[in-house]
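REQUEST ID: PR-0412
SUBMITTED BY: lab tech R.K.
PRIORITY: routine
TASK: structure prediction, single protein chain
INPUT:
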Amino acid sequence: SVRFAPSTNVVLAGCWDSTLLLYDANGQGRHLNTFHSEGPVLDSAFLDNTHAVGVGIDQAVRVFDLNEPASSTVLGHHSKPIRCANYAPPINTLFTGGWDAKVMAWDPRSGTGQPTATLAMPDKVFTMDLKDTKLVVGTAGRRVVCYDLRNLHGPPLWERESSLKFQTRALRCFPDGQGFALASIEGRVSIEYFDPDAEAKKYAFKCHRIQNTVFPVNAIAFHPGHGTFATGGCDGFVNVWDGKNKKRLCQLPSFPTSVAALDFNHDGTLLAVAASYTFEEGEKDHPADQIYIRAIGDSDVRPKPRVQQPAE
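STATUS: complete
OUTPUT:
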């Protein structure tokens, strides 16, 4: 996983070797610190610019002080590995989603070891995101569940089947909070809206395909300013899309192996790309895992409305 800090160009990478690596994305990508977990790290989330959470195979929710590499605090545990972590600053609540089919809410200041809420999911949690008052979770079995962050002890707002026919791999909310993008292992992305009246605007498109070979879409990242988004796939490519105008804006030069994770920085001028073989073709020799920082020009991510043809 890769995550940028909320308002600096520091980036945090969760690794298979049970470490979290902290880098300064300015200039040469200087390595700042290494933090240790007790199992492979599957996701991370910043609480603020100097505190972050790492989750993964060891089932623990760990908070790290990024200025103190030797210290970490365990907020609590899931009963199976934890796949996702997302922080909601307005309500100071951390959400973690696990393969135990639960999403747990935590107060990062609490030392009780107990979540403030536990949400039962229909299956293993694979991906989730939140924006404004919505928490959206993608699970195994192609289920998608949406909760109101103001009513975590009530029922979900809705639960439905994914509009894509294959396993969900990534899900991210629009920056304007109007909907979300969902990606699958079958080289497709769907664009969906929260407002039932916007159902007609929902659509899906094919991507990350080379001739007759279809590649999983592993990652989605929205540009914070323009609302356009990048996708990364097992084809080693990152594409930038204008979802509202239904067109591809650009494709970055290919990476040496699968693109496993993506994140824009706070002002959208940098994109962190984690290139890591995701074993979609089984055990084989593969390039070493690497983090790339790409400078993003405004022309790469600015929407390009369709030109209206003049009437005859």
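NOTES: Residues 298-301 form the longest helix (4 residues).
REVIEWED BY: pending
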